[in-house]
Amino acid sequence: MASAVFHRTALYFMLTLLVPIFSVAQPYSNVSSGSSIIADDANGSWLSPSGDFAFGFRQISPGGGYLLAIWFDRIQEKTIIWSANRNNLAAQGSKIQISTDRGFQLDDPSGQPIWATNLASSGVVYGAMLDTGNFVLVSNGSAVLWQSFDSPTDTILPAQILNQGVGLVSSFSETNYSSGRFRLLLQLDGDLALYTRNFPMDNSIDVYWDTKTAGSGFQVVFNQSGFVFLTAKNGTLLDLLSSNGASTGQYYQRAVLDYDGVFRHYVYPKPGFTTSGRPGNWSLLNFLPSNICSLILQSSGSGACGFNSICSLGIDQRPNCFCPTGYSLANPNDRMSGCKPDFIVQVCDQESEETSHFSFVDMPNTDFPGSDYNRFQPVGEDWCRQACLDDCFCALAVYRANTCWKKKYPLSNGRVDSSLGVKALIKIRINNATLSPTGSNPNKRNRYTLIVTGSVLLGSSVFFNILTFVAAFLFFLRLKGRKSKMLRPYTDLAGIVNIRSFSFKELQEATNGFKEELGCGACSTVYKGTLKNEDGRSIAVKKLNKIAKEVDQEFKAEVNSISRTNHKNLVHLLGYCDEGENRLLVYEYMRNGSIASFLFNNSRPNWYRRVQIAFSTARGLCYLHEDCSTQIIHCDIKPQNVLLDESLVAKISDFGLAKLLRPDQTRTMTRIRGTRGYVAPEWFRNLPITAKVDVYSFGILLLEVICCRRNVETSVTNVNEVILADWAYDCHKEGKLHLLVADDEEALDDIQRFEKFVLIAIWCIQEDPSLRPNMKRVLHMLEGSVEVTLPPDPESFMN
C-alpha cells in the first residue's frame, strides 16, 4: 500500500510541474486585420506554422452546408477539433473576416451575421493559428483578446485548460457536428461531471458520472506530456482522467466527449513516426466512464441509446445500441434515435380478443429501469407473463426473484448486462403485422376494412365460406392461448448464413462414429471427420456436452453470430447440428494442431515464426473485440485454443462459445487453478467481466510465445522462475530481460523487439483492468505504430 501511495504522489508531483504555459509567443503566422475566407469549392485556410492545424471552412457533405472549423491538417482524416457554427451551418458564399471594429464575424452571403466573437471593443490587429491548435485574436499590445481554447466544442488538446463553468458538448453523431445529447462540465462548485442533455434544449437532465470534487475542483488541464487531470486552486492534483501519457512530439492527441457520451483520449502518430510507412490512425488511450450503459438511469429522458432501445458494452467499452426483436430504429441513420415497434401494439378495447395475438421474446440479463408502472411480488414467471399479456398497457415485463415489473411505452434506460440477473419479457405480435399508417387508429382501420370488404363480398356466396374460415381460425388461436398458462417464447430466429446445417447422422458418419478424438475439454470433445461428398475435406467436429438450458433456444442465433465472423486469424465455422439433444459445431480442420504442442515440445520454433504467431493472435482478438457487429469476448485465450493450419498460420478457436456453456463452468475452471494462469483477477473478485479479460490472457500467452516456455514451470531449478509472468517482471525491473531467452540466439539478435514485447505483456497483465490497453492498442504497440511506455509495478495496485 505504501508503494502505491509513493507512486501516486510522485506522479502527482510530476504532473503539477507539467501544467501548460499559455503564451502567444509561440510560432505563428499573422493573419492581419481585413483578411477573410469565403466558403466555396476552392476555399482556402489559415495554417499553423508547422502545418499541423488549419482554420477555415469545411463542407460537411457534398452539396451540404459549411462548418467554420479548426482541424488536424496533416493527417488523412482531417479530424475537426473545434467549430464556430456547429448548430447553424453556413451557405456557400459565406465569409469569415477579421476586422478592427467588429473583431471576428461570420456572415452569410447576404451579409447577415451567423456567428461572432462579440468583443466589447475590438482593437484586433491580427489573428494567428498556433501550433497548439488554438486560434487567437491579438491586440496592438500583444494581448490575447479571444482564443478558440476558451470556447471549446467537444474536444480539448494538449496545452488547453477548462476553467470553472466551461465544458464540452458532444456532437450529435459521427457525421453530424451539431450539439448532441451529452455534456462534460466543470461546474462552478468545482465538481467535474458528465450530464445527459434535454436534447434539443440546452439544459441538463442528470449526472451519470462525476469526480465528486465540489468545493475543490478548479481546472481541467491537458498538459504537453499527454496527461489529462483535475486540479485544485493551489495546484494539487485531485483526479487523473487519463494516465497513459504519450509524447506530444511523436503523437497528435485529443480528448473528446464523443457522441455516445463517453470521454475518450486518442493519439495519432505524427508523420515520420509510423514504422510501417503507412498512414496511422487514431488509437484510444483512455476513456471514462467505464460502463455508460449501467450509469444512465434517469427518471426522464431516453437513456444512453434512445427510447425502446437497449444498450450493451461493445468495442473499447463503447455503448452498442440495438433494438429488441420486433423493433427497428426510428431513424436508420442514427443508431441512438431509439426504436419503434414493427407491429400493431395491443389495443385497449373490451370487444377485442387481442391477447391471443401476442407472445413474448425472452431477453436474459436485460432491464429497462424507470419505465415500470406496476410491481408485484411474490409471483411466478408464468403469472408475470400472463399479467402482462392481459394488460393492454404492458409493453414488456421484467422478472427477477419472484418479482414482476410491468413496463409501458416509451421504454427508457434499456441495458443488457450479465450481472443484472433479470429477464425481460418483450411482448410482440405473433403474426409480426406491420404498423398502421401514421395518425390512424389501427382498431378503427381494421373495422373499416372489414366493413368495406364485407359489403363487397356479401353479394357472393364466397363470403360465407371466407367468414367461416376466419371464424374457425380465430377460435383455434383463442383456444390454443387458453390451453397454455404461458405462451411460448418467440422463436423465429434469423437464418444461419454462409454455413451448413448438418444432421446428426451425417456427422456420425463423417467421424466414423466419433472415433478419432482430437481433444477434450470440460464442456466438449473434438473429433476428426471427413466430408465424403466434398472431395474428402477434413473437418473438426466439436460435440458440446453441456449446454445451458436457458440459452438452448438461442443456439442457432449464437451460431449465426459466430458464422458472420470472417478473419484469416479465426478458425472458420463450416456448419452446425441442432437436432434433438445434440448440439455440434463443425470447423475447418487445423492440420498442425495447437501452438501449445508447437511451442512446448523439445524442438523450439524459430523466433520469426513465434513473432508471427503473436501478431496473428493479436489480430484475431482485435477483430473479435473491435470489428464484429456484436463484440465477442473469448474468455479462454490459451495456447491450446490457438491452432495452426498447414501453412503454420495461427488462428483462434472456440470464440463465441461462452454463451453456450453452463453458467457454472467458467467459475469451476477458474477455481481449479492454484497459481496465476491465464485467468484475469476480476473473475475472482466479482468484478464486471469485459474484453480486458482477454487482454490479460493474451499477455500471458505473449510471454509464453516469445520465451517459448509455459507460464507455470515447476521443473526449473530457481524458484523465482516458476511463474513466467513474475520472473519476466523481475527481469524487467532489474534490467536483465535477456535472461528470459539466454539460449535463444535468434531472439537475442532481435533483443529490442523482444524487450518491447515483454513490456507490452506486462501492460496486458496489470491487476487493475482499467490499466490494461485494449487489443487494438496492443496490436498497434506490437506493430510499432504506438509507443510502448514503461508499465507500472503490478504489485502497487494490488492493495
From TrEMBL:
It is found in: Membrane. It catalyses: L-seryl-[protein] + ATP = O-phospho-L-seryl-[protein] + ADP + H(+); L-threonyl-[protein] + ATP = O-phospho-L-threonyl-[protein] + ADP + H(+). Its EC number is 2.7.11.1. Its main location: membrane. It is a single-pass type I membrane protein. Residues 22-150 form the Bulb-type lectin domain. Residues 1-25 form the signal peptide. GO terms for molecular function: ATP binding; carbohydrate binding; protein serine kinase activity; protein serine/threonine kinase activity. GO terms for cellular component: membrane. It is an enzyme of class 2 (transferase). Residues 512-783 form the Protein kinase domain. The chain crosses the membrane at residues 450-477. Keywords: ATP-binding, Disulfide bond, EGF-like domain, Glycoprotein, Kinase, Lectin, Membrane, Nucleotide-binding, Receptor, Serine/threonine-protein kinase, Signal, Transferase, Transmembrane, Transmembrane helix. SMART domains: B_lectin, S_TKc. Belongs to the protein kinase superfamily. Ser/Thr protein kinase family. PANTHER family: G-TYPE LECTIN S-RECEPTOR-LIKE SERINE/THREONINE-PROTEIN KINASE SD2-5, G-TYPE LECTIN S-RECEPTOR-LIKE SERINE_THREONINE-PROTEIN KINASE LECRK1. This is Receptor-like serine/threonine-protein kinase. It comes from Dorcoceras hygrometricum.
